[in-house]
Amino acid sequence: MMTRTIDTTETAGFRRNLTVLILAQSLGAASGPIVISLGGLVGQDLATDPALATLPVSIYNLGLALGTVPAAWIMRQYGRRSGYLLGAMIGVLSGLIAAGAISFGAFIFFCL
User: Fold this and answer.
1) I need a surface site. Which of 31, 56, 108, 110 has the fewest CB within 10 A?
2) Is position 105 within any domain?
3) Full domain range(s) for residue 36
4) pTM here?
5) Distance CA 111, CA 6 (A)
């Protein structure tokens, strides 16, 4: 019977990768509920018409639905890592635009 010895560098690399993946999944999974729960509240504060308060949440859901096919295509063409990195960069840029829009009270840019 053969036994496998575990190299400590292999274990350290596994733990590092596991930690990075857990953090990435946690941050990625938290964005949707945050946008949905806070988008309406911020929209209510920024919109001139109360009927438009949930427009940012609706646009978020529409963008999510429309982005699935291009995201799948990008991941098929360039790999999952590249697709995830592109998605993360778009998420950071979107967050910065939203934060700036909230700071300046610009409802249209918050919807963007």
Assistant:
1) 108
2) yes
3) 32-111
4) 0.72
5) 51
